[in-house]
Amino acid sequence: MQEILTIGRYFKRKFGVKVYKAPISIMGFTCPNIDGTIAKGGCIYCENESFSPNISKEQRSFKLNLHTKDNPHLNSQLLQLESQYKKTKTKLAKKFNAKKFIVYFQSFTNTYAPFSTLKALYDKAFELEDAIGISIGTRSDCVSEEVLRYLKIKKDEGKEVWIEYGVQSIYNQTLEYINRGHTIENVIEWIEKTKEYGLNVCVHVIFGLPNETEEMMLNSFKLLCDLHVNSIKIHPLYITKNTRLANEYKSGNFTPMSEEKYLDILVKAVQMMPKDIVLQRITAGVPNDSLLAPKWCYEPHAQKNSAKNALLKAGFLY
Ligand code: SF4
Q1: 98: CA distance to ligand 1 center in Å?
Q2: Within 6 Å (CB) of ligand 1, which residues are found?
Q3: For residue 48, how far is its CA from the centre of ligand 1 (angstroms)?
Q4: Three-state DSSP class for residue 127
Q5: Residue 111, SS3?
Q6: CA distance 6 to 202
Q7: Which atom of ligand 1 is nearest to 32's Cα?
Q8: Which side of the chain, N or C, has fewer Cβ within a 10 Å radius?
Q9: Residues 6+ apart with CB under 8 A from 254
């Protein structure tokens, strides 16, 4: 039986205690794939305000980008960061006796703002009580050397620093079809640069994207392993209601993958994964009414158990 290096095991070995991620969502952050800088509407599976006519005028009007000069909402954002962190910390401490945390900037593109705003938010996150570091979810075409230089200093001071890049596929025709707005060449360039700065890189990959074969999915996974990323998150493609993918699905142009097929590809991917890469996620779902299909993605807890069992049968302990 091979024990997979999960993020829990990685942190426990490194810090001697369990470390929990505290997800943060800061108002004003968006994505260049949504605001029209690169594209409009976002990735075809992304539920965002392009599909939410009820969003308030204020929310719509305050959106950051790389050229924002003044940020009158910075203080509110810092307070929001602190209060979200405290809330999650209290909850996790009560439920799991959690003592150490990673501040996870999760929603949208968390490097898509002027450096002064980013620095203020990251500085604050690094200082939060019992936070050992941060993890930043972003796109490879939205990160700058300035940000990487700053994060390297923090890493050299002993902080835990991760950057999470949404990659999804290594095939440019797929990236174009799903409206990612960047190429695989850009992804490779910035993964390599981020690693040159000595920062931890986590990549997200999706199995079941339109027009992709099993071979393509496994090739995507293999290339990311060959780039020596530090961690991988694997997701099945599911369809939520207010997305462009929902229209494709309703018009019969897209059929989601079965759970059986997903688990089969997941096991094959894990079989080719080097033992020192952290496998941070093996499935994902939406446990509410916004899920349109497939139905097996409605219960993330049951999904995780099925994925763990499939891996166990193949000799892997997740
Ligand atoms: S990159 Fe992320 S936030 Fe931006 S459109 Fe795609 S899924 Fe949505």
Answers
A1: 30
A2: 31, 33-34, 42-43, 46, 48, 108-109, 139, 166
A3: 8
A4: helix
A5: coil
A6: 12
A7: 4
A8: N
A9: 210, 239, 245, 248
Instruction: Quote the CA–CA distance of 269 and 219 in Å, as a whole number.
Output: 9
Q: Which residue CA neighbors atom 7 of ligand 1 most closely?
A: 46
Q: Which of 51, 108, 204 to mutate to test the pocket of ligand 1 (most atoms within 8 A of CB)?
A: 108
Q: How many domains, the chain? A: 1
**Cβ contact 232:224 at 8 Å:** yes
Residue 30 CA: nearest ligand 1 atom is: 3
CATH code, 203:
3.20.20
In which domain, by residue range, is 27 found? 2-56+63-317
pTM: 0.94
